[in-house]
Amino acid sequence: MSSVESSRSYVRYRVIFACMLMAVLLYLDRFCISFAEVFIKDELGLTDHQIGILLGSFFVSYALCQVPSGWFSDRFGARKMLTLYILMWSLFTALTGFATGFIMLLIFRLGFGLSQAGAYPTSANIVSKWMPLTERGFASSMVTVGGRIGGALAPVLTAFLIILFVPISESSDLKPGALLQPHQLASTFLKRVDEKQTFESEVYAQLPPADQEFLKSAAADPELPPGSAEEDKFINDLNQILQNASLYNPQEYEGMKLNQQAEQLLTINSADMTPDEKSRLNRLLFEARYYDDVRKVQGQGWRKMMMTYGVIGIFIAAIFWWIIRDYPRAHPSCSAQELELIEHGRLEEDKDHSKQIGGIPFKAIAMNKSLWLLSLSQFCTNVGWLFLVTWLPRYLDETYRVPLETRGKMVTFALAVGWFGTLSGGKVTDWLMRRISLRWSRVLPIAISRFTAMAAYLVCMLDVSPWVAVIMFSIVAFSTDFGSPAMWAFNQDIAGKHVGSVLGWGNMWGNLGAAVAPVLMIAVIGIDHHWNNAFITCAIAFLIAGVASLWVDPAQTLVVETSEEMETETPES
């Protein structure tokens, strides 16, 4: 009986789970900065243009390092290289929490992109070696859905950590430089005093004459430089008022979306509030009334959030190293029965891992027409998709004034729908291969899903409610992810022993699209934020992606010449 039981093993599923866990961290670390960028922008005094460069810079280094990092994994082993990649990007994530200016952030983002470049090419390498040919689509979907889980968790978990690291017991005082636009704030403040609005009237009445004069001079002088001694005195006196006064008037906040923490504090009787709770509530009310003009108190938590993600990466790297081996025959727990199942239908040369590959097969890649078409599809897909993980939080904020916590839930909902797209796309890809043909099992999931995403963006141009817009964005996420397993399977079909390099090639072009997208979105949206221009741009991108994928053919395998292959014996480990 024991010999029968020992012949059974399911190591390949543990291997895919480890890759999936890695992908969760990959996207969690990648997109947490998109949700924290409003706080980073405020604290470091960055412009929208600089934020666009930072968001795009990651994809530049990420894209350009795809092929080399994929080749490193093909050549030196997926286990060693991906563990190293995880540790490297976790280090750059943690270092981001120590940034003091634009240049430091730019260096860290470029290093972060370089470190993450090998993640998916290496995972594709692992899937190609560990999964039977008929299960590649679903296995690939499990890895990519891990990324989508991380992307969907990023907004809500990032918001939770940022708030967690700024507890109510921590000072809610405004710090010097907290007034981002003194002229605009002063003008609005005095206008509301004239209108006898409760909040401003009570604050103004308690301000010393010198502070009242500061407000008048700031309102009259648009060129007044921030950080003056008069401004610092005004902030100090304002803190004294915000610590003690009862400033909430329900009528003045009708239709105004408050921070969730503010809403929770408003459920407490004013007489029962602690000084810290009263100070925090007044600070949040002040921020709500001057949203664009005041630095956010909860933004102070973004640095510790980045450091926390960096520490988590160390544990994920250890788990990955413990579970993964480069190929089934190297894993002590992989039985002969499982090995036979994995290798069934493979060519003999694809079963032999005793040799290292030579250099990157650039010539063979450049001569493959289908790979170029798929690369174009990936480029345009990322141009359309990236809106969801970079600009969607700001769109919901500026168009609908959705509070921080609700924004996190909305973005998480939209991206979470993509999980089902990835899983169903993997199943459909494998089903089409068994029922129709290899070619159409790759083409149909990609093409149809791109046309669907295009239609969803066009609906967003209508005057819709916030949740209808979120549903449309969810369709975009579902459609984008539905075609991903077919893309992975295509690369594994044509690549032979060069899966890392080939998938890295397609990912390079896809992420060059992602690098272009933030700057492109800033250009088409404009300073007045015409969001419909962004939706038209994304719809056109998905149209091109769908048309290009119609001519992809996985029968056009990579033709690697002997001079490119140059295999060498793998040293004994």
UniProtKB/TrEMBL annotation:
SUPFAM superfamilies: MFS general substrate transporter. The keyword Transmembrane helix applies. One of its GO terms (molecular function) is transmembrane transporter activity. It is a multi-pass membrane protein. Residues 15-557 form the Major facilitator superfamily (MFS) profile domain. It comes from the Bacteria. It is found in: Membrane. Pfam families: MFS_1. The chain crosses the membrane at residues 15-39, 51-72, 84-108, 149-168, 306-324, 371-392, 454-478, 508-527, 534-552. Gene3D superfamilies: MFS general substrate transporter like domains. One of its GO terms (cellular component) is membrane. PANTHER family: FI19708P1-RELATED, SOLUTE CARRIER FAMILY 17. This is Putative sulfoacetate transporter SauU. The lineage of its organism: Bacteria, Pseudomonadati, Planctomycetota, Planctomycetia, Planctomycetales.
